[in-house]
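User: Quick sanity check before I run a bigger batch. Here is a single chain. Can you write out its predicted 3D structure?
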Amino acid sequence: VFVQFEDEIASMGAVVGASVAGRKALTATSGPGFTLKQENLGYAIMIQIPCVVINVQRGGPSTGLPTLPSQSDVMQARWGTHGDHPIIAVAPASVRECFDLTVRAFNLSEKYRIPVIVLSDAIIGHMREKIEIPAADEIEIINRKKPTVPPEEYKPFADDGTGIPPMANMGDGYLFHMTSNNYDDEGFPATNDHEIADYRLKQLHNKIDRYRDDIIDVEEYLAEDAELLVFAFGSTARSARGAVKEARKEGIKAGLFRPKTIWPFPDQELAHAVSRGVKHVICAEMNLSQLEGEVLKATRGQDVAVHGLHQNDGRLISPQQVLTKVKEVLNNG
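Assistant: Done. Predicted structure follows.
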């Protein structure tokens, strides 16, 4: 079912309401629209509502470059709404991955009761590729965990030992309260209870930290023996792959590390890849270094130099630009 709402604020609110009623719901936007969705996105995070938000990134700030690509909403995806909150974000790099990672976004959202953001960009959004869509019975579908207690015993935010509270559908015989305030296990406001505030915030984070290995997904290309690693995601990773392939032809031991999961950041996986003997990491992204800091933190303590390749003028970083940067880094030692 597709419903056109009057604006991005209303559409995000409708997604939250649909999910509370038991439907799997998503909303899609770019740039300023993603900004307008942040208030209700924060509400969904707080009350632990499964839903999916697709952001086809374009140049900004404000209206910016409305038809040209960018990857400058990475930190907005992580911290766009206020408060010390968790989030999951995935980044497709092909038409097929737009399909696969949207399915995965729904599965992660339902499994962990949290909104999931699909961070595409204008290149991927306008791309045409032939793909084979799997048969419906071949697609893994995960549904939210339902309560096993009768309605009178149900507490919508009580931990059952897994860290993920079971979620009843509103209107299926279960009546419960939800509020954007700090709340107790029954969903009622507890705005002056410091112990509950501490517990609730930790509950939101712990369910992501506890299952990070299930959530995080990365791809490595020719990285096993790499001495130089290119870190890139989305459409930029396509250019990086081409550059790495060409570098190998020229005898350069280059590799690609591509995070399919952007948030939580795959710091452990990147650190492991670097520990195999990587001396240089090039962080290639269509922004002014939003993930370079995360790469630096992940590789702290290792004998590796991190270099930035940043461009945010509406043009895709080309394979030749990446290859040129690879040679520049190696020539400068």
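The chain has two domains: 1-215, 218-331.

User: Great, the batch can go ahead then.
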